[in-house]
Specification:
With 177 residues, the chain is of the alpha/beta class. The chain has 3 helices and 9 strands.
């Protein structure tokens, strides 16, 4: 018997590439002459952001933030903290937040509020995977990728206990029985 969970593919690397190409085309159309600042949320977005920016052939800048995660239960966005701060001022910039997955929405509700207070010229959200079934606060995804079922997603940057981020396909793990 193995203590490792079973990993199943949800979206192949080819399907991922097609999704990223489509998202990149939408972002290119809107940001070609705006020198946008793309802000990736660590750590999960690092592979998606890397794929995305290599499909964008116009001037842009990249920065990262990290936010604390919350435990189970009665957390509100107000209890989250920014752990790794931006190196670039965002006042007057066209900002696109790049995230791996939205689940409850609490992290992004908090982060979009935090960034919005710093007076960017515009602030939009690009999310690779949307898991709408567990949403607790509304989140507007301006550049959506794919919708995923209520499973624990791993791969393509997403981890289970820091493992599986390197899986090239978007996958999910079955609970250990
Ligand atoms: P939220 O619940 O605030 O929308 O999501 C917070 C964070 O939890 C996401 O940015 C992501 O890092 C993590 N998360 C949410 N759902 C999943 C999932 O299915 N798999 C993994 N690996 N992380 C997830
Ligand atoms: Mg995340």
């Amino acid at each position: 018997m193995s203590s490792e969970p079973e990993v199943k593919v949800l979206l192949s690397r080819q399907e991922i590439a097609a999704t990223v190409n489509k998202m990149a085309a939408d972002i290119s159309r809107d940001y070609r002459d705006r020198n946008p600042l793309l802000i990736g949320i660590l750590k999960g977005s690092f592979i998606f952001l890397s794929d995305l920016v290599r499909q964008l052939d116009f001037p842009l800048e990249i920065d990262f933030v990290a936010i604390s995660s919350y435990g189970r239960g009665r957390t509100t966005p107000g209890e989250l903290k920014v752990l790794h701060r931006l190196k670039s001022p965002i006042k007057g910039r066209h900002v696109v937040v790049v995230e791996d997955i939205v689940d409850t929405g609490l992290s992004l509700a908090f982060l979009m509020g935090y960034l919005g207070k710093r007076k960017p010229a515009s602030l939009k959200l690009c999310v690779f995977a949307d898991k709408p079934s567990r949403r607790r606060v509304p989140v507007t995804i301006d550049y959506p990728g794919v919708t995923v079922p209520d499973k624990f997603i791993v791969g393509y940057g997403l981890d289970w206990d820091e493992k599986y981020r390197n899986l090239p396909d978007l996958s999910y793990i079955e609970p250990i029985r």
